[in-house]
Amino acid sequence: MPTRAINPATGEVVRERSDTSEHDLTAIVQCAHKAHIQWRDTPFSHREACLTELARLLRERKREYGALMTEEMGKPISEGIAEAEKCAWAAEYYAANGEAQLAPVTVETDASNSYYTYQPLGVILGVMPWNFPFWQVVRFATPAVAAGNAAILSHSSSVPGCAAALEQVYRDAGFPADLFRNVFLSNDRTGDLIEHDLIRGVSVTGSVGAGKSVAQLAGSVLKKCVLELGGSDPAVVLADADLDVAVENCVTGRLVNGGQSCIAAKRFIVVDEVRDEFERRLTRRLRKVTVGDPTNPDTKMGPMAREDLRDELHEQVTKSVRAGARLVMGGKVPDKPGAWYPVTLLCDVTSGMPAYEEELFGPVAVVIRASDEREALRIANDTDFGLGASVYTTDLDNGERIARDCLNAGNCFVNSFVKSDPRLPFGGVKDSGYGRELSELGIREFTNVKTVWVG
């Protein structure tokens, strides 16, 4: 069946592609494997040159790629350009650091020489989402190929143009033609691909349901997988917080990419002492955010990516209000074509409401009251997710203690919204998945850690 891209700002079909045939899929996997066999023996200096050229091309084409993201999933053009630049940063990071990160590690034993080394596994399948259509892919594929693997991308059906552009830019950067390939597959055919003998690992960014399905299937054929799934990230605001800093970061963290981010700050948990003032300042700040044409460089928030996702979010908001949440602003679907939804604020949210229990993937901010720091931390951890978390306080020692020891998440920030950085490990716990991307851990995820002992 055809793969369709619909402009979420207009509702118009902008692109169609056919699914990859079985014949072509078999050939792609075989060619990727052959490319890996040759690539794994190349000196890192050659990989470094390709990674450096990849970074240059991503920056050179950033406006083209930003416009493509805007067209296919509604990201404001300024955020799309920034996304392409961040991809370039990741490529530069592994160009500069990959050789050292993959270097053999000598260990003193009773052998004349003993060490362990990192060797590539083979062809790695990436199952990637639409919300960061370039960054999610580069985050998986760049360390994978830097380590000597090949990569096959099964991208979201709503961003086929982004998928095709990514395959082309890796090729243009000098990587072997079949080392990074893109395929268009339905979910059931992606499952079949995981079972293919030449696929040696799987990286998934997506929903909890998708992650569980992939993990079950990959486990049945003993293949490693890395899962970066959903999140319902808490932002804990303590009594001694600088409210200007807290509000600005909470708004930025909540509304980046139209709120369609796994690490968006989705639950603002505020202690009683400052809750009313926080709500007043938050409301004023949110009212300044205008939703507009995503092709305008000044637009901070465009439409959501798809109408079905917008409708699902609206249903979560409606059910929460029916259950007693107070709708401060937004919460109404605009009467116009496209996947538009207003900036929305729900207060007095309590346990049992969708806004408390579920991930809200869109521009909806949620305020939850806590009596004190202890209760705020209890509420923060009262979730099945564990991707990111943040805490706001002027007591930096206490903030660091909370981030390090008290918040159950993979990425914990003090006085800032959560964001990924090529230099730091990225991933979650609980229903947010397992494994790590980025940093030295990311480049080693899909390697065989081989011990060598010489008598």
Topology summary:
Layout: E1 2-6, E2 13-18, H1 22-39, H2 44-60, H3 62-73, H4 77-101, E3 105-106, E4 113-120, E5 123-127, H5 135-146, E6 150-154, H6 160-172, E7 180-183, H7 187-194, E8 199-205, H8 208-220, E9 224-228, E10 233-237, H9 243-255, E11 265-271, H10 272-287, H11 307-322, E12 326-329, E13 344-347, H12 354-357, E14 364-370, H13 373-380, E15 388-392, H14 396-406, E16 411-414, E17 433-434, H15 439-444, E18 447-454
Parallel strand pairs: 5-6, 5-8, 6-7, 8-9, 10-11, 10-15, 11-14, 13-14, 15-16
Antiparallel strand pairs: 1-2, 3-4, 4-18, 9-17, 12-13
Helix pairs in contact: 2-4, 3-4, 3-6, 4-5, 9-10
Quick overview:
By secondary structure, the protein is α/β, with parallel strands linked by helices. Helices cover 42% and strands 20% of the residues. It has 2 domains: 2-229 and 429-454, 3-Layer(aba) Sandwich (Aldehyde Dehydrogenase, Chain A, domain 1); 233-414, Aldehyde Dehydrogenase, Chain A, domain 2, CATH 3.40.309.10.
